[in-house]
Amino acid sequence: MFAPSQPDPEVLRIAVPVAISVIVSVVSPTLLALLTGRQRMKEEESKAEQRRLDKKEDYDRQDQLAERQTKALGVVADQASKAAELLLASNATVAATAERQGAQLTQIHTLVNSKMTESMQNELDSERRGLVLLEKIVRLAEASGDPPGPADIGAIQSAKERIAELEARLADRLKQTDAANVETITKV
Fold first, then answer.
1. Which end of the chain is more exposed for a tag (fewer CB within 10 A), N or C?
2. How much is the pTM?
């Protein structure tokens, strides 16, 4: 049979570095591509995980904001409700006060009108008495032969005008009082 021979050391010295170079040149890019691919996959996984964490953090932040807004709206709604209750209570108090004051004003107005009417009636009565006295004086003076002078006639005319004016004002006042009484009765 055939016996293996020993390789020539010179051939080995050249062949081994060439073989190593060939192996390195073929295996190295493949190994480099494999390592780079793995690194890229890890980076992509890391980026995807970071995006997922960022989204979760963003969702959590949005949930917290929505919760704070909901609480704030609840507080505002409670405050608005309390303000509305206070406003209603205040309005009721104001309405009651206004009603009492209205009644008091009506009573005061009635008293003032009554006193003014009474005063005007007294003035009218006084003017009428004065006119009667003036007319008597003029008649007595005429009976004694003294005709009435322009001052006497002017005083009588002035008294008659004042009486007519007071009668008209009293009649108007009575109409207004009657209208106010009817309005008051209608409201009640």
1. N
2. 0.45
